[in-house]
Amino acid sequence: MDLPHELIVGVVECVADSKTLASLSTSCRFLHSLAEPLIYHRFLLRSGKEMTKLERILWSRKDRMAMIRDFDFACDGEKRQNFSAMVALLYGASQLRKFNFESPNCNPADFEDEDQWDKTIGRVLNLFSQAISGSPGGHFHPFKHLNTLTLHCNGPSSPFWTIQKNTFAIFLLPSLDNLTLSCVNLNAEIRKFVQNEHLASTPLKALKLIECNVNHLALHAVLSIPKALTHLEIDEACHNLVNFSVNRSSHHNNLFAKHARKTMDALRQQKGSLASLTYGTTIKDRTPTPTVQGGDEVDGAFSEFTTLQTICLRRSSPVFERAVMTLHPPPNLQTLTNTGAAPFTDFTHDEMYDHLIDDPECPLSIPFLRAPSSFIPASLRTLDVIVEDSSRSGYFNREHCRKFIEDTTKHLKTANSIDLRAWAQDSPSRHNFFPPYLHGEAEDPRVRVYNPDEGKWLSRYARPAPPRSGFTVAEERNYYPLPI
């Protein structure tokens, strides 16, 4: 070829279609050397049959297994799985950079008993401790080079699984910078697993805890490990508590309402690097601010978070709002977001909360800015309020609600140069189980309901396209180029 090698390399790296890559790999030795690693770069596997076939093809070619960079085991609950093949593939993928795992029973809710769980999901989770200690078999160290990890699992006879001594190694992976865990119990015993050499030792940048049961001591232990965390999401268990008969523990969740100072002590470990914070409360965290015991302890709690630019609150937590906005908010805060069924409702009328959203005269207030002695930093530019409205009607059709939003939008823009944006989104309660799945039910997009520039409201909300049930055939073929 007369083209420069650098140009050819750039073109080949942009090819996503597996058939095209296969054709290129048979053209000449140079293109073969470029295309073959991309053919084995990533795999999406849903069934034991696919795992068995891939293991059989690759096990005799360790060089090809080492080419794998992205494994996605989104197990189909209606198909038989082969966890032995799955573990073997993970052992062989010694250069794996990204791993997504969705257990087969977490979505159908047909949870295994403890013995069966240990033989299946437990086998996969046990690999993480080997990435720290080294595997007994020799040079294979699963997950040693892993950058991105997502685990959507269930536990034995439960929608929740628990971080224990062997799985605590997940937080210690030496190359991991992006971690997402869902449906996990973070218990106080985690602090026993943290050694002095673990403190501020990992490169983790982004941590998402979705639909999790979180304890104060566990949160403190987990946040003591990263050197400089930039993005943190703590989403307490909510939807699974509604959809399943799960006993709620008094030792988990409602972190700010139960003990704001302990929660802030945990967060302050990352005050020098945290840029984005999302906090989602569990069911009915609606303690009115005036009655919070020791509420003044959180005033100005985020004042030392100089890098914090984005804060999101899901559902309702007056204490969290107070911690963010009272007296001394984060000095470089740019965006605030509040999501809930009735986020404009004045939470000081909590004793009537269940009736307020149907009351045409219910008092309204501005999320975050309603905190006592709130102070608006000069850096704040956007306040997004997202109403989870499964009917796509009621809340924004109330005249007094519309007038409140119109007046508040105008005032904030004029006085503080802040854009108040009102959005609607389907309520997660319409789903059988909580979103998101790795390749299942997608969250509905937000719809902006008021355009202040034109002074117009949407007369009716446009229904978005139905949530996808997974990849299209073409997408899955590209993502899963099973070798022949």
Automatic annotation (TrEMBL):
This is F-box domain-containing protein. It comes from Dissoconium aciculare CBS 342.82. The lineage of its organism: Eukaryota, Fungi, Dikarya, Ascomycota, Pezizomycotina.
